[in-house]
Specification:
The complex is a heterodimer. By secondary structure, chain A is α/β, with parallel strands linked by helices. Chain A has helices at 17-32, 74-77, 82-96, 102-111, 120-125, 142-149; strands spanning 7-12, 36-41, 115-119, 138-140, 154-157. The longest helix of chain A is centred in the first third of the chain and has 16 residues, at 17-32. Chain B has helices spanning 16-26, 43-54, and strands at residues 5-9, 33-38, 58-64, 67-73. In chain B, a hairpin with a 2-residue loop joins strand 3 and strand 4 (67-73). The chains are: A alpha/beta, B alpha+beta.
Chain lengths: 158, 75
Amino acid sequence: MENQPKKMAIIATKGTLDMAYPPFILASTAAAMGYEVQIFFTFYGLQLLRKSLRHIKISPLANPAMPMPVPMPVLISSLPGMQAMATKMMKGKIKKKGVASLEELRDLCHEAGVKFIACQMTVDLFDFKKSEFIDNIEFGGAATFLEFAGNTDICLFV
Amino acid sequence: MNFDRELDARGLSCPLPILKTKKTLNELASGQVLKVIATDPGSIKDMQAFANQTGNPLLSSTEENKDYIFFLKKK
């Protein structure tokens, strides 16, 4: 094996429960396999860096591939409470099947040395406060990401 | 097979068996053997890939009553 570790860069742009998993799963696993990893969180992906992840939800709306216990017309999916119900169902399934929680995966990423970079422009755009985010993250822009991404073996947009 | 440490990863899904394997390997000395028991069918291929990538040899990979049993040697 070469002395230089392999590298992976991920751009996380989504802030829903389902789309929060791929960046954290791949980053934690890559780090465990000896990769140097950075995740750049931008737009809705920035939600994944907030201290609490309890607001991360999944919606059955505009998501026809989501398995439901009973077939559900789109109009029903749009009713109040449906998003909360779908989120509760999904979290229940996640726990039952021994899938890690988002918090657990995020902690494992941190422990394994994955570098988290928050998009400064998005922070400003949505008027986030830096105090809303977890510790040990950096703030940067496109150039910061590209400097690292330009020398990676794997580069993903999620 | 003799081993120095055992990791019970039963009931855990991807990527937890691999992440816990890595964490436990960190606590072992070079040459020591870790036994991992998992129930995730994906771990058969994943453990081999992990071993190939990290250079910690996978000494054996077997199945016993729906348990997948791996022996990894720390490099």
